[in-house]
Amino acid sequence: MGVSSMRDEKMLCPKCGIFDVSRDLSPRELEVAILVAKGLSNRNIGNRLFISERTVKNHVSNMFFKLGTNRLGILKYILEKGYIIIEDINSLGCEDKDGK
User: Fold this and answer.
1) Which residue has the higher pLDDT, 12 or 66?
2) Cβ proximity of 56 and 32 under 8 Å
3) Domain contains 55
4) Which domain range does residue 62 map to?
5) By CB neighbour count within 10 A (0-12 exposed, 13-18 middle, 19+ buried), where does 48 fall?
6) In this structure, what are the phi and psi dihedrals at residue 81, rounded to the nearest 5 degrees?
7) What is the pTM of this model?
8) Looking at residue 44, which CATH number applies to its domain?
9) Nearest C-alpha neighbor of 38 from the set 79, 81, 80
10) Is 75 a domain residue?
11) Is residue 12 part of a domain?
């Protein structure tokens, strides 16, 4: 299947050229998303995954685009997919403030 036929299948609005964006996250984006959902800051996510804060921001930005949402939407996505349960969420941000 060529690129043009794949694009035709995913087109939402042929008039305006809007395409459906895959909601599938890469394995690394999924790792970042789970930590976002748990309430960690970009800096602490970077420290946990041994990547720069800027790289985390890039992953988060890509997720915003793919999911069409914000950090709260990432949390909803992660919960809906069953990657974490509500008890895993750091609602007070204590872990984030301690940098652990």
Assistant:
1) 66
2) yes
3) yes
4) 23-98
5) middle
6) -80, -10
7) 0.69
8) 1.10.10.10
9) 79
10) yes
11) no
Residue 3 lies in a domain: no
Directed axis angle between helix 71-81 and helix 27-37, to 10°?
A: 110
Terminal-to-terminal C-alpha distance of the chain? 47
- What token pair was written down for 54? 């800027």
Determine contact, residues 38/93, Cβ cutoff 8 Å. Answer: no
pLDDT class of 23 with cuts at 50, 70, 90: low
- Residue 18: beta bridge partners? 13
Pair of tokens at residue 92: 């007070």
Helix (H) or strand (E) holding 79: helix 71-81
Whether 42 and 53 have beta carbons less than 8 Å apart is answered as: yes
* 2 pLDDT more than 60: no
- Which residues sit opposite 19 in a β-bridge? 11
Q: Which residue has the tokens 């069953």?
A: 82
Coil, strand or helix at 18:
strand
pLDDT tens string 28-55: 999 999 999 999 999 999 999 999 999 9
Q: According to the model, what pLDDT value does residue 90 have?
A: 67
